[in-house]
Design a protein that fits this description.
heterodimer, A: mainly beta, Rossmann fold, Neuraminidase, 2 domains, four-stranded antiparallel β-sheet, globular, B: 205 residues, alpha+beta, four-stranded mixed β-sheet, 54% helix, rod-shaped
Chain lengths: 464, 205
């Protein structure tokens, strides 16, 4: 009943209905949104309240964009823009924040937050409202209002680094994830970064497309970045005189070390085991390409998982429980997606294909929730992103516009970064698998081989 | 010798002196009153020895010039041969899309390399396999590895010691043609051959 009423209220603003299937049949509107967009029954409405403190403008901007990019809310722009703050009462005097450092949650501080004109926001289609308010010291309070319930859902405190501090954006992204968690009880992807390769070097970029940085500093050509599950380190390969050498680099310090036992052959496509002890990788020798694991912490215990001889095995990816490895094998002729136990036993076909009809399949990546494996497959001479359902082993084509390859999962197992030339040149894009909404991550030609990080720990930007 | 007419002998001496380019040999005039015959004999002998020395010097000079010319010629020939051999050795072989099988036409190219490797025992080479941009980036490393290995196996099966050949793969990371069409792709699906050692003076097979 409420939904119906709201639908009537906003009818004059012209609701647009977007297909909610996961085919990226159209580029989704990314432009300025005017008025209220309300889709009955699709997503809860979210309004990020204007901030009177200019210092927090960028916090609000980053927060709003993160919540928008989560694809879980309908972001509501207030009529009249940001100039009006539709509150029932002006914020009253606030007692000094107890402690000031860290974060507090719960209803205890709720009384301190300004009360909202809940019925009005409800009428505007908002289910949640987020207020960002400064507190004494460098503490910022983010209040998540449950508009429907007419009260404060949660209050999150964070000490913000200075705007120019390299850790500033990460802290705001983490606030956005806490808002999402408070509102819907699900984990977000705001505090994540994507590694990728461009012109032979490894770069990192925030998931919202900001803060691109070079992370591999050597002159050697680099490929295949991969994250450790703790988000504190990553691995990649570099060409050294025709050999492939694997490196592990710490996010915080930037220090890197070669992985023992690699670099004497062509070693490539590293993948961390979920427990963070083992690195699986591909090794190309005159016998062909096969999968190996090494205990990279001890620098020992090189183990061979496959023996191809007349065919190749490559591109390992662990299941999140660490028990299985999906990989590419050419044992049936063209490369296809296979799976085995993490010790190399029980090898079997994973993604079904029609022999002689289905094109090459490559670049598998197991989703963090364990339910799907994304990969790309040659369809009529160009590559498209597919998703394999691990339980049913059904395969679904996700993309169809242009050439799309090298998918990598966000930690919510719902968003995916990949390489596409749909805009005319190869660049990085992000798709929400549930709604099909798609946005460019980086509008630079030649960016490829993306690797989406897990949720980054708070210390990721400082020395561990 | 003694019977030779004096005139002829002195004529020879004069000729020898002339040939030596105006360098006047130190000659003491025969003292008057001494036996004319003995004086003439002494003159003749002196002239004779001078002529011989001159001739020998000329021959030595000539031989030295000839030797230098031969060295230069052989060096040039050697350089030309090394260059020609290098060109032959660097000739690439090409592959069909997503294949690592040596084409029939490329067997002759590899046969030349077999002959060169046999004629130059110190020669060591590196074969690098390359791919076009169409396939998957990481899979192409495995495919390039197969391509390099295919050429090596051909050479080894024709009698070349496996330890003289190294193989590497660059996948699609190092294209030589930058276009996005079949012409460029065909050029990029290749094996390159590079000298690692023993390539200074290469013999023609």
């Amino acid at each position: 009943m409420r939904r119906l009423l709201l639908g009537l209220v906003v009818l004059s603003f012209g609701p647009t209905v977007r297909p909610s299937d996961a085919q990226d049949t159209s580029a989704i509107d990314r432009g300025v949104r005017i008025g209220i967009i309300y889709r009955p029954g699709v997503r809860p409405g979210m309004v990020v309240l204007p901030i009177h403190a200019p210092a927090l403008d960028s916090v609000r901007a980053i927060l709003s964009r993160d919540l928008d990019y989560s694809d879980r809310f309908e972001l509501i722009t207030l009529p009249g823009g940001d100039s009006i703050r539709v509150t029932a009462a002006a914020p009253g005097p606030r007692p000094p924040a107890a402690g000031g450092a860290g974060r507090g949650t719960g209803g205890a501080g709720a009384a301190a937050a300004s009360t909202l004109n809940y019925p009005l926001y409800q009428a505007l289609g908002a289910d949640f409202a987020v207020a960002v308010t400064p507190a004494p010291g460098d503490t910022t309070i983010v209040t998540v209002h449950d508009v429907a319930a007419g009260g404060v859902r949660r209050e999150v405190r964070a000490r913000l680094p200075a705007l120019k501090d390299p850790g500033f954006r990460l802290v705001v992204h983490q606030l956005a994830d806490r808002v999402l968690e408070a509102a819907l009880g699900v984990g977000g992807t705001a505090a994540t970064r994507v590694l990728f390769v461009m012109e032979g070097k490894v770069y990192t970029i925030d998931q919202d497309g900001a803060d691109q940085q070079l992370v591999s500093s050597s002159d050697h050509q680099a490929m295949s970045p991969a994250w450790a599950r703790d988000g504190r380190r990553f691995s990649y390969m570099e060409f050294w005189q025709g050999h492939g050498r694997l490196f592990i680099q710490e996010v915080g310090s930037g220090k890197r070390a070669p992985v023992a036992t690699t670099g004497q052959a062509l070693d490539f496509t590293p993948a961390f085991s979920p427990d963070g002890k083992t690195l699986a990788f591909s090794r190309a020798t005159e016998e062909g390409t096969d999968l190996y694991t090494v205990n990279f912490k001890e620098g020992c215990c090189l183990q061979r998982l496959t023996v191809g001889r007349f065919y190749d095995n490559l591109s390992p990816t662990y299941s999140p429980d660490g028990l299985r490895i999906a990989f590419v094998s050419t044992r049936a002729g063209l490369p296809q997606i296979y799976v085995m136990a993490a010790d190399g036993t029980d090898q079997q076909l994973f993604a079904p294909f029609d022999y002689g009809a289905t094109g090459s399949s490559n670049a598998p990546e197991w989703s963090p929730d364990g339910q799907t494996v994304a990969f790309h497959r040659d369809v009529g001479g160009t590559l498209q992103v597919f998703v394999l359902d691990v339980r049913t082993r059904a395969v679904r084509q996700l993309t169809s516009v242009g050439r799309n390859e090298d998918p990598t999962w966000a930690p919510d197992s719902r968003h995916m970064a990949f390489v596409s030339d749909r805009s005319g040149y190869r660049q990085l894009w992000i798709i929400d698998v549930e709604t099909g909404r798609i946005r460019p991550l980086l509008q630079k030609s030649g960016a490829r081989l993306p690797a989406w990080s897990p949720r980054l720990p708070e210390t990721a930007s400082s020395t561990p | 010798m003694k019977r030779l007419p004096l005139l002829l002998l002195s004529g020879l001496a004069v000729a020898a002196m002339a040939a030596c380019g105006g360098k006047t040999p130190e000659t003491t005039p025969a003292p008057a009153g001494i036996n004319a015959d003995s004086a003439a004999e002494a003159d003749r002998m002196r002239a004779d020895s001078i002529a011989r020395a001159e001739r020998e010097a000329r021959e030595r000079e000539e031989a030295e010039r000839e030797r230098q010319r031969r060295i230069a010629d052989s060096l040039a020939a050697l350089g030309k041969s090394t260059e020609a051999v290098r060109t032959l050795l660097a000739t690439m072989v090409h592959f069909d899309y997503d294949k690592a099988i040596i084409r029939g036409g490329d067997a002759a190219v590899l046969d030349q390399k077999v002959a060169i490797l046999q004629a130059n025992a110190a020669l060591r080479i590196r074969i690098s396999g390359h791919c076009d941009e169409r396939g998957s980036d990481e899979y192409n490393l495995a495919l390039g590895n197969r391509r390099a290995t295919a050429a090596k196996q051909y050479l080894v099966s024709h009698g070349i010691d496996a330890s003289r050949i190294e193989t590497v793969s660059y996948g699609e990371e190092r294209p030589i043609a930058q276009g996005h069409d079949e012409e460029s792709w065909a050029q990029n699906r290749r094996d390159e051959f590079e000298i690692l050692a023993g390539g200074d003076n290469l013999k023609q097979p």
